[in-house]
Design a protein that fits this description.
Layout (H helix, E strand, L loop, with lengths): L3 E7 L2 E9 L4 E3 L2 E2 H4 L3 H7 L1 H5 L6 E8 L3 H19 L4 H6 L30
Helix pairs in contact: 2-4
């Protein structure tokens, strides 16, 4: 059985996603999906490509995620999963594109500037 591979990125996170036709098993870094992503919203984000293409339970998904936090990894998983689904069936491209799941999210953390507390927050101003 052939595996279909997609690499996804979000913030500092990277996810290498392998899918194959199966019964819906999802493993992330050797752990069950629900255990790795305990927060419901991150789970929904990660599995949006399967939901949009109505293919929940049709694929076994194996993910190697690293870098960033759980939220970024969930976004990376979503991006990688969308790419893998397009590799599996090119007819999914239109619907995934429509939902913006094939576009890499370019937003990154703004750098801290010198003379300031954070990227935009400044130290308290004192006139006297």
């Amino acid at each position: 059985m052939k595996d279909f591979i997609g690499t996804g990125r979000r913030k500092e996170a990277t996810a290498r996603v392998r899918i194959r036709p199966g019964n819906g098993t999802i493993v992330v870094n050797g752990q069950p999906f629900e255990e790795y992503f305990p927060v419901v919203t991150t789970r929904l984000t990660a599995l949006k490509p399967l939901h949009v293409t109505q293919s929940e339970g049709k694929f076994d998904v194996f993910v190697l995620a690293d870098g960033g936090g759980k939220s970024g990894q969930a976004g990376a998983l979503s991006h990688g999963l969308a790419r893998a689904l397009v590799e599996y069936d090119a007819s999914y491209r239109a619907v995934l594109r429509q939902h913006g799941l094939l576009t890499r999210d370019p937003r990154m953390v703004e750098r801290k500037k010198y003379g300031q507390k954070k990227a935009r927050k400044r130290f308290q101003f004192s006139k006297r």
